[in-house]
User: Fold these one by one.
Assistant:
Number 1:
Amino acid sequence: MSARTLLLDAAHVAAGHAHREDPSRPRAGGPAGNARLTAWTGLVLLVLVVVEIVTALDVTGMLTWHVVVGTILVPVALLKTASTGWRIVRYYTGQRDYRQAGPPPMLLRVLGPLLVASTLGLFGTGLALMALGPEAGRSPLVTFLGQGWDVLTLHQGFFIVFAVSAGLHVLARIVPAVELAGRRVARAARTPGRAARGWVLALVLVAGVIGAALILPTETAWQHDHHFHDLYGRHRFDR
C-alpha cells in the first residue's frame, strides 16, 4: 500500500465519509458498544488534554491544576487504551463480529503504538516527578549519547511526541467520534450496555479525582523549588 493510499484512506475516515457498521450484540453491545465507549472516552480525554495544555502554558502559576488534571487523565487514558486494545485483539484473533466491523485505517494502526507509548511515558514520568520531588526529578536517570536524561527532561520529551501523535490522531478521529457520540444518540440508546458504559466512564473519572487528591500534597515541594520557578515562570513561595 503506497503512502498516498494510506493518506487518502485516513483522510476519508477523518472527513466522516467512511461509515463503519459495527454489529450490536446483547449485554455489552459487541463492537457497537465498544465503539461508543471508545468515542465517549476519547471526547472526555480530548477535553481534559486541552485543559492540561492550557495549564502547561503557565505551569508554575497553575501547577496545582496541572497536577490535578494530569492525574485525572491517567485512568481515562488507560480506559481509552484498553477499549481500543480490546478491539484490536478481537480483530486480529479472528472474532467474527470485529472482523466484520473491520480495522481502522492503516496509518492510524501505525500511529497507534507511538501514541500509546508516548501517553504512558508522559503520564508515567509526570507521576514519577510528583513522587520523586524536585531534586531527584532533576537528577540524571540515564545517559544517552553522552547526555544525562532526568525524569523532568523525559517528561518534556514525551510531551512533544505525545502532542504530535495525539494531534494527528485527533484530526483523524474527531469527526467520526463526534458523529458517533452525538448524532447517533438515539441509535446508541438502543445499543445494549449503555448504562454499563456510563458507569465505567464515571468510575474512571472518580478514580482519577481520588488519585489527584492523594497525589496533590506532593506538589508542595515543587511549589517551593526555586530552580523550577527560575526555569519555568514566576515565583510562588508564599505557601
Number 2:
Amino acid sequence: MQLGNSRVWDYAGDNYVHRLVQNKADGKPVELEPVWVENEEKMDSMQLEYTYLLTSQLEAQRHYFEDRLTRIETEALKQLEEMKEKTKHAVDERKQLEEKLNRVTKEKQSMDKKISQLTSKVNRIASELKDEKEINKCLRQNQGLWQQKLSIADKALKEVREMKEKEITDLQEQVRDLMFYFDAKDKLKDVPNVSSQEIQEGQIVIGEASGTSTENTKHRKKKH
C-alpha cells in the first residue's frame, strides 16, 4: 500500500488493484470505483513512460553535452597551445624590435651629431659667402674707377713706349753715324793730301785715282 495516495500495488499483476479513499461523512476508508482505478493506472503508466522518455532524453543530452564539452576542451587546449606559440613568437619579435630600436637610436644619435656638424659648417660657409658677396659688391662699385685708372695707365704706358722707341731710333741713328765716321776715318787715314780737319768736316775729294769720279761724304758730328 502506498501511503501517499492509499493505493495497493499488486506485484503479481504488476499494477494497482484498488484504491482506498477517506469518507467525508465518518472519515472511514472506502474503496474507489474500478473506473477511477483504471484511469489512475493509465495515468501512472503514462507517467512512467514519460519518466522513462525524459530519463532517456536527459541521458542522451548528457552524452551530447559531455562530448561537446570534450570537444570544447580539446579545442581550448589546441587554442591554448597556439596562443602559447604566438606569445613566444611575439616575445621573440619584441626582443628583435627592441634590439632594432636600440640600433636605430644609436644611428639616430650619430646622424644628429653629423647633422649638427654639417649645420655648423653650412653656417660658416654661409657667413663666408656673405662676406664674399660684400667684397664682390664693393669690387663692382669700384669697377668703373679701376677701369678708368687702367685706361689711364694703358695710355701712359703707350706714350712711354712710343717715347722710348723714338729715343731708341735716335740712338740707333747716332750709333750708325758714329760707325760710319770711324769706318771712314780708318779707310781715309792712309789717303794722301787728306787732313784731319777734312775728315772731321766730312768733305773729301778724290780725283786723280779714278779720273773724273767725285765722292762727297757727309758725316754728322758727334754730340758732346
